[in-house]
């Protein structure tokens, strides 16, 4: 007998959450097929087809497959080379009163496509909830370090100062956009409904003796029974594979956000300014015992690249669907859709774990600021000299010469930046030497960064997390633990 493990999705549930793994498991897939057959039978009976109550009751009582039924379905599929018909026969064995009406008027895509749309919607909901927790954790981090000055980088070269918290808001803003995009994709999803073999509903029109109103009502009833507000007005045999493009696009975009964020953390780890969690017994390298490799952030980058690439599959599959359908989408989508969501799920779990254990080293940050700030404060020194009655051009030349001398000390001799010591030693700057400490205070170089953090969190982040669904997720999120 084939075990349940034989049907597992490509990425192991060891790494993805139990909820996401189960959603894309064979147990859930075939359970959903049975629910869809039940919904179809209920709606057909309601509209007058002679379906006995016993058939409905037997179907309701057998919506979940047992291991024995998995074995029967596997044997049937091997014989019939058709997964849907294998499960029609398997379902009929445990619901014999319904055996003659299961799948009545439907095509295979009635169960496969409608089930996929249900899974896509539920999977997006799971990601939305997890992303909300990640946003909340990084918001807490941004708030804590809202005013801690740090050296900014453009082109990965020293630039003006910012704050640790302000830098985190750059990550947060992109995560908020991802939250918006995931919600849009979920809320836009419709249902395929009951459309027949080529989307014309011809089989259902025959069932209802040419009654168009009943066929349309059947579509509405099954759509509502399946939990959707609307069905796509026209389909071919399948729902348009362009829907998969629209669903996987925000996942790919989330991958780009996660990759950028994790890359920033890897660079900061190299600078020894901010580090991801590192357990006391964790080993960074098998050879170099002193190493603290940012393996979580590296894992995020690795999986995020894969997540971004999966979207290409949806694009290519959609582009080659001939006329009313071809079957070259099927095997591809059975891998692509689960793998995209399982990958996104793992990325978010790892991001949450990182966000809940970030370590900041203020003294290292302050030391790097001290190395660069003297050059940045030169304009302030010039302005102070002018205010004290000096000549700007003369002050500029003095600072230029001293700056080049200090740069020589740093670049050629490997010494510390001694520009301020040189300024203090030059009598020309006597009128402002009492102001030098104030001119070099890092907090005077961060502009409105703390206030920007406060306003961003208050006006954008907290409102985005304020609906009941997300608040419950944040409150119940706990700490994200990684299995390895």
TrEMBL record:
Q: Residue ranges of the Adenylosuccinate lyase C-terminal domain?
A: 373-457
Query: Which GO BP terms, alphabetically?
Result: 'de novo' AMP biosynthetic process; 'de novo' IMP biosynthetic process
Q: Where are the transmembrane segments?
A: none
Q: What is its EC number?
A: 4.3.2.2
Gene Ontology cellular-component terms listed: cytosol
Record key words, sorted: Lyase, Purine biosynthesis
Q: How does it assemble?
A: Homotetramer. Residues from neighboring subunits contribute catalytic and substrate-binding residues to each active site.
- Name the family: Belongs to the lyase 1 family. Adenylosuccinate lyase subfamily.
Question: What's the protein name?
Answer: Adenylosuccinate lyase
Source species: Obba rivulosa
């Amino acid at each position: 007998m084939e075990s349940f493990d034989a049907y597992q999705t490509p990425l192991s549930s060891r790494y993805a959450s139990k909820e996401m793994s189960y959603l894309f498991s064979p147990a859930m897939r075939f359970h959903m097929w049975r629910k869809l057959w039940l919904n179809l039978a209920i709606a057909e009976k309601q509209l007058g087809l002679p379906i006995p109550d016993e058939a409905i009751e037997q179907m309701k009582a057998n919506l979940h497959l047992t291991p024995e039924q998995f074995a029967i379905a596997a044997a049937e599929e091997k014989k019939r080379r058709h997964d849907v018909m294998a499960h029609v026969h398997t379902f009929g064995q445990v619901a014999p009163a319904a055996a003659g009406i299961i799948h009545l008027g439907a095509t295979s895509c009635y169960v496969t496509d409608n089930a996929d749309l249900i899974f896509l919607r539920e999977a997006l909901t799971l990601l939305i909830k997890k992303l909300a927790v990640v946003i909340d954790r990084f918001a807490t981090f941004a708030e804590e370090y809202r005013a801690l000055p740090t050296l900014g980088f453009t082109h990965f070269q020293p630039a003006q100062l910012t704050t640790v918290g302000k830098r985190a808001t750059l990550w947060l803003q992109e995560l908020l956009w991802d939250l918006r995009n995931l919600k849009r994709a979920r809320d836009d999803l419709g249902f395929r409904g009951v459309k027949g073999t080529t989307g014309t509903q011809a089989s259902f029109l025959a069932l209802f003796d040419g009654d168009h109103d009943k066929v349309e009502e059947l579509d509405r009833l099954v759509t509502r029974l399946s939990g959707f507000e609307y069905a796509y007005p026209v389909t071919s045999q399948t729902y348009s594979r362009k829907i998969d493009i629209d669903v996987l696009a925000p996942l790919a975009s989330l991958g780009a956000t996660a990759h950028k964020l994790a890359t920033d953390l890897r660079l900061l780890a190299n600078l020894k300014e901010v580090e991801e969690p590192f357990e006391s017994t964790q080993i960074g390298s098998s050879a170099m015992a002193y190493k603290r490799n940012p393996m979580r952030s590296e894992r995020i980058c690795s999986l995020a690249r894969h997540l971004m690439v999966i979207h290409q599959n949806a694009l290519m599959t959609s582009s080659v669907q001939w006329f009313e359908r071809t079957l070259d989408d099927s095997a591809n989508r059975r891998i692509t859709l689960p793998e995209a969501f399982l990958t996104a799920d793992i990325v978010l779990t790892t991001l949450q774990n990182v966000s809940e254990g970030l370590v900041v080293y203020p003294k290292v940050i302050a030391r790097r600021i001290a190395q660069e700030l003297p050059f940045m404060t030169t304009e302030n020194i010039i302005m102070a000299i002018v205010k004290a009655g000096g000549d700007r051009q003369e002050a500029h030349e003095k600072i230029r010469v001293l700056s080049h001398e200090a740069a020589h000390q740093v670049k050629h001799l490997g010494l510390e930046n001694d520009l301020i010591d040189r300024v203090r030693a030059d009598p020309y700057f006597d009128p402002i030497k009492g102001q030098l400490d104030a001119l070099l205070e890092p907090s005077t170089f961060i502009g409105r960064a703390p206030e920007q953090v406060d306003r961003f969190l208050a006006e954008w982040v907290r409102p985005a997390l304020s609906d009941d669904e997300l608040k419950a997720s944040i409150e119940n999120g706990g700490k994200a633990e990684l299995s390895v």
